[in-house]
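Project standup — Tuesday

K.O.: blocked on the structure for the chain from last sprint. Re-posting the sequence here as requested.
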Amino acid sequence: MIVRRIGFAAITLSIWALLVRAVLGVATHRTDWDGVLCGPWGCTPPLSVILACHAAWALTVFPAAAFAWRHLPGSAVIHLAKCLAFGSSFVLTVIATFAIYSHLRVELRPARYLGQRVAVDALAYVDLPVLEILFAASFLGVANAIFKRSANRGAPPKTA
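H.V.: unblocked you, prediction finished:
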């Protein structure tokens, strides 16, 4: 039985590594969409690179979220989803605040590109999986609500 579990884990990890490698390989392809995200402050990295990084983070975050949803009790999943949503929302707020501050400091017409600048900065931030964690938290909350998992899942049955 243990050999079967080790074999399954090795195959799963190999498939995951191949998927991440394939997704990151997309970053080397150049498209007509590479220079689209530009403004008075300059351009972001190529869109294929940004999408490849976000997809690689998604391949890392979503299996962990699915594992947590599968193995944690319903109340723990709700608390985890709330903490993840709060944390990622806080980081996105910091990114937006910094974008607004740096935009207002240098731009002559502040309101013209402000929304675009905040959206581009949030999208181009790939150092941490902020957007992916926010989506994973949403997935955990929605999946828990749809399937109405009990709070005592995994606990031993009560005896009368």
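K.O.: great, moving the ticket to review. The chain is about 70% helix and 0% strand. The longest strand covers residues 38-39.
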